[in-house]
Amino acid sequence: MTGIYLWWPSRNQLVRALTVKRRASRERLIFDPHKVFGIYSAPVLAVVAFSGVYLVFFDYVRPMVNLFSPVELDGWADPRGLTSKITPGATPIPIASAVSAAEPVFPEARLRRVGRKAYRENALSATFIERNRIWRGGLC
How distant is the alpha carbon of residue 121 from its chain centre? Predict the structure, then answer.
């Protein structure tokens, strides 16, 4: 941000500030590409910085992202009452049976991923994607 502030030219100097002067002194031939590359790479660096902030401070950035994106992430919510309980001594059902039992709950969704829940032994997690919604929930 400091570099952009220091670089910012006046209105009549803007075109000159965004170009490299070819017939100039050696110092100018080094400085011009430096400042032009810096200002042209600033949007890319801003996107990379924002994605890092988004990953680290997800709960704080999410409301701002929701202003521009209609996707709702209900990752840890209990979607439509789909819960699973591990019964001691019960035999686990196959993954295909668990997915086929969950598919009627989300008739318009596509199964995106099935995996293990890290915090529960012998528990599966499935991710279904509907239009503008992502559902994550436990299967069994």
Answer: 28
**Is 136:76 a contact under the CB 8 Å cutoff?**
yes
C-alpha–C-alpha distance, residues 83 and 23, integer Å: 71
User: What are 14-61's pLDDT values in tens digits?
Assistant: 787 788 888 888 888 888 888 888 888 989 999 999 889 888 887 788
Instruction: Render pLDDT for 81-134 as a digit per residue (tens, 0 to 9).
Output: 555 666 778 777 777 887 888 888 877 888 887 876 655 566 777 777 776 665
Query: Measured between alpha carbons, how far apart are the two ends of the chain, in Å?
Result: 50
Q: Are 136 and 123 in contact (CB under 8 A)?
A: no
> For residue 48, which amino acid is it?
V
What is the full DSSP assignment across 6-64? HHPPPGGGHHHHTS--SSS-HHHHHHHHHHHHHHHHHHHHHHHHHHHHHHHSHHHHHHH
Sheet holding 72-74, edge to edge: 72-74, 133-138, 124-130, 110-116
